[in-house]
Amino acid sequence: MLDLNPGLMLFVLIVFFSLMYLLNTMLYQPLLKFMDDRDATIANDLKNAEEMADNSSDLNAKADALLAEAKAEANVIREKATTEAKALAESKIESKAKELDISSTAFEAELEAEQKTLKNALSAQLPAFKETLQSKLSSL
What we know:
This protein is an all-alpha fold. Helix content is 96%, strand content 0%.
């Protein structure tokens, strides 16, 4: 039958435990340490990513606020420039209108003077026209 050899069984048991010890120290513990370190690194990276996401949302909010402020300032500057340009244009129009009023008044005065001189000249030549007209009518 089957004969049990206690010496051989003891030798196999010693080899088994020594192999388990060597595998534990050379393979399992470094592998478990590597996996724990990797888990810790992943957790740390996730934490940093969340912090950066929070920071980026804060920075985006600040950037939006700055853009809104810049747009408001641009609108104020644009309104100021438009108002100044309108005031300048109105003053130029007003000065040109005054200039035209003065020149039209001078032109009207000149026309009135010419009209008076023309009336005086015509009334001075009226007796001559009457004589010419009577002579022409009498010759008909």
